Amino acid sequence: MPESIVTLEDFLAVGKQDHLKDAHELTHVLIQLSLAAKVISNSVRKASLSDILGASGNTNVHGEQVQKLDEYADTVIVEMLSKGGSVCGIASEESEELISIPKHYETGPYVICIDPLDGSSNIDVNISVGTIFSIRKKRSEGRDAQLTDVLRPGAEQCAAGYVHYGPSTMFVFTSGSGVNGFTLDPSIDEFVLSHPDLKMPSPGTNVYSVNEAYMRKWTAGQQKLVHQFHGGQDGSDSFSSRYVGSMVADFHRTILRGGIFMYPGTRDNPKGKLRLLYEVAPLGFVCEQAGGLASDGKQPVRNIHPEDLHQRIPVFLGSPHLIKLAEQYLARN
C-alpha cells in the first residue's frame, strides 16, 4: 500500500480523537460503524440481484412502510455495535424504544443514535441512500443507557457523521475538531482519507435544495424565501434547484459545494418531517464543523433539547449567509 494512503483506522490510530475523554472507546465505535457500513454498502450494490428490494410488509413507529433494506441495515448496525463493547445503548429511527445491549456483551461509555438507511424508498430506483449516526456520552449510573442519556442537546454530541452510498461509498464524520471524509476503496476494502479537513465553500454555489411540491402548504415566509431564490423582485440572481430526496445525498452535495438544504414545516405540520436525534442533530454538527450553519429556522439546531426519541423539527443546513437569510424571511411570517 503506498505511503500516501491513509486509511480510517490509520487516521484514528494516530490520536486524532485525543481531544476527547475515552478517545480509545470512541475510536472503537467509529471503526465498528465503518465495518457495518462496508456490509451495508455491499448489500446496496447487490440489491437488484437479491431479494432485498421493496417493502418488507411491516410498518415502523412512525407508521411508515419499512423497506427490506431498512430492516437489514438496522440489524447489521445494532448487532455490530452491540458486540463491540463500547456502547451501552442504541436509539434507532426504526425502533420505538431505546435498545439495550444484551447481557452477555460488555458495554461502554457511549450511546448511539442512528438512521440506519436514510432515503431507503429510493433504493428501488437506484438513487443514493445513506446512514446517519450520532455518538453521545452516557451520563446516567448503571450498566444500561437511559432516555436521559439520549434526550440531550446536539451541542453535547461527542461525534457524528454519515455514510453516503452513491457511485462510491463515503464515510464522513466529525468528533468536534473538523470534518474528514473517507472513500471506500474496493480493491483493499478500506475507507481511505479522500477529503481531509473538509470545509464548505464560502460563499459557495447558488443552489437550494427543497421539495417544492409542498409550496402551497408552506408558510408565507418560506414561500417568499424560495421566491427570492427564483430571482426575487430586488433583481438578485436566481438560484439553481437540486433535490434528490435522500437527505444524505442532498446534504453531501451541500457540504461539498455550498448552498442550502431545507426541509421546512408546513402550516398544517409546523414540525416538519425530519427527526431531531437521528437526522437533524448529527448532520447539523457536521455542517457546523465544516463551516456552515444548522438551524430550525429560528435558532441553532445544537441548542434544541429533545423531548422524545422521535421528535421532528424543521431544518435548514448550509452556507452561513443563506441560513441567516432564511431565518430573516421566516421571522417575517
Structural overview:
The protein has 333 residues and is an alpha+beta fold. The chain has two domains: 8-195, Fructose-1,6-Bisphosphatase, Chain A, domain 1; 207-331, D-Maltodextrin-Binding Protein, domain 2 (3-Layer(aba) Sandwich), CATH 3.40.190.80. The chain is built from eight helices and 15 strands. It has helices spanning 8-13, 23-45, 68-84, 147-150, 220-231, 247-257, 276-289, 320-331, and strands spanning 55-59, 65-67, 87-92, 99-100, 110-118, 129-137, 157-165, 169-174, 179-185, 190-195, 207-209, 240-241, 260-263, 293-295, 315-318. The strands form three sheets. The protein has an eight-stranded mixed beta sheet with strand order 4-3-5-6-7-8-9-10, sandwiched between helices. Strands 12-11-13-15-14 form a five-stranded mixed beta sheet, with helices on both faces. Strand 11 (207-209), helix 5 and strand 12 (240-241) form a beta-alpha-beta unit. The protein is globular and about 60 Å long. It starts with 7 loop residues before the first helix and ends with a helix.
